[in-house]
Amino acid sequence: METASEIVNEVLKRRRTGTIGPEKHEREKGVKANVYEQRVEKKAYEIYENRGCQGGHDCEDWLEAEKIIEAEMIAGK
After folding, report:
1. Which domain holds residue 55?
2. Distance between CA 28 and CA 31 in Å, rounded?
3. Number of domains comprising the chain
């Protein structure tokens, strides 16, 4: 299992190279960055609620939400 810092580093690397993130979807599918961010924010909050509203996992929730939204956008949802 990857550590949180390894996950963050991978996400940052992918964002720098344009392989994930709002810019990729804006470029490829015309999805505006703010729409992408709103979807990720909503999904991260759902993850937080599903865990019983326990704090302290903000970064993990956000990264998991990004993975889910990326997969949905790739699948055309």
Report:
1. 4-74
2. 8
3. 1
pLDDT tens across 18-27, in order?
A: 656 655 655 5
Give the global pTM.
Answer: 0.60
Q: pLDDT tens-digit profile of 40-61?
A: 999 999 999 999 999 899 889 9
Nearest residue to 44 via CA among 55, 30, 32: 55
Distances (CA, A) of 16 to 26, 29, 49, 56, 70: 15, 19, 30, 26, 16
* Residue 50, SS3 per DSSP: helix
